Hints:
CATH class of the largest domain: Alpha Beta
Oligomer: single chain
Number of domains: 2
Number of helices: 10
CATH architecture of the largest domain: Alpha-Beta Complex
Structural class: alpha/beta
Shape: globular
Radius of gyration: 19 Å
Helix content: 25-40%
Amino acid sequence: MRAVVLAAPGPPEALHLRELPIPTPEPGQVLIRVKAFGLNRSELHTRLGLADGVTFPRVLGIEAVGVVAACPGREVAVGQQVAAMMGGMGRTYDGGYAEYTCVPVSQVIPFTSTLDWATLGAVPEMLQTSNGSLTVGLDAQPGQSILIRGGTSSVGMTTAILAKGRGMTVLATTRNPDKSGALEQIGVDHILIDTGEIATQVREIIDGGVDTALELIGTPTLPDTLRATRIHGVVCFTGMLSNQWIVDQFYPIDYLPRGVRLTAYGGDANDLSPRVLQDFLDAVAAGTAIVPVHRIFGLDQIAEAHAYMESGKATGKLVVTT
């Protein structure tokens, strides 16, 4: 099989397409013929050497979609469409940047869809993160307001779509005014050009501040996101597009505005139920939801794809098809 191998941390050109043996699944594992996979900042962090616990050489990729090629324990039928993600994929064992991947059955979610593979490849990690942030991280309720910091990221756009489906008022940020149109198309109510300090502007739109806020940029903007949130409002720290996620010398009374609650979200495959995945895919097929795919690459374009992801030019998800 063809697989993308990272021998050691480095630039996009450190990703090399190699010929490797197709893995042999053991009991409790599933061999998946990969059809597509989405690119994630997590893989960028691994490539840059910022991720802990990674051994090299490694086939990257924390998610993939495809068809079951073998399953010794018969937990999943051969030929079943599946998504696989997380649980050490692309870090402690080889992941989805390949024509085949072998993963624990616990990381596999079955689905049935006639959507094209590029669209399907964009969904798993993006949906799991957005849905989990809304439900677990924020406990978002219909009619509330939400600020999405990092609105043109794939998770930001998907969260906006899910939030609008819940009847929420959505505010979303972008640093690039040229990307405002993409946010308008998915129904964002208020688009903010992010200068690094938007709390005052948010409070002019929503008196007292937003009910909920999703932080996808990281620690550089987190204090301002907290200031944009009302008393008893909730901020969920989920993303780190800035590659910065540590708060130095954290003093809660000084750092947190009075009465504002700070939570965090990080999920796994078992946080995305087959029903939630299937319902979302059915909604996309019916035209009542969209998948924000920005650009599709081939497996032999992986270095170009990673360079594009690192540039921050994407508005939505980057996907690779095999």
